[in-house]
Write a structure and sequence with these properties.
Blueprint lengths: L17 E7 L3 H18 L2 E7 L5 H10 L4 E9 L5 H20 L3 E8 L2 H7 L9 H20 L1
Parallel strand pairs: 1-2, 1-3, 3-4
Helix pairs in contact: 1-4, 1-5, 2-3
Amino acid sequence: MSGAGAPKTDKIDGRGLNVVIIAGTWHEAISDGLIAGAERVLDEAQATHRVVRVPGSFELAIAAQAAFAGGADAVVALGVIIRGGTPHFEYVSAATTDGLTRVSLDAGKPVGFGVLTLDDEQQGLDRAGLAGSKEDKGAEAADAALRTALLVRELRG
């Protein structure tokens, strides 16, 4: 699992940051776990945040763009894409990743990337921060978004 080499991190002070969690609606148990992890990190950091839902991962980028236009300092993008028997998986995964990257760079603001690209549902359950999960990718994405938003703020003076 990728979480094995994760760095130990100190507490974050996210006061004054406005963060939007944007999550797809597919695979509800997994996406709800990702949201819970992200909210926990943002609450602990005392960052202002809200959750919005989009139909699927493909729609995350346009919603992130709207969140930045509305004044968000950071976005936490959460989605679940599970491989099937057609090339659909590759197209949606690539478009979602490329779209979120573009939105982040165009806005000059961070997108915490919590989009799970999976071979099967069990891999998502193992990463969703649920009881028995090995990882908490929602929490990791929120942590990355907060830390990067603070760094960008510092670098820009």
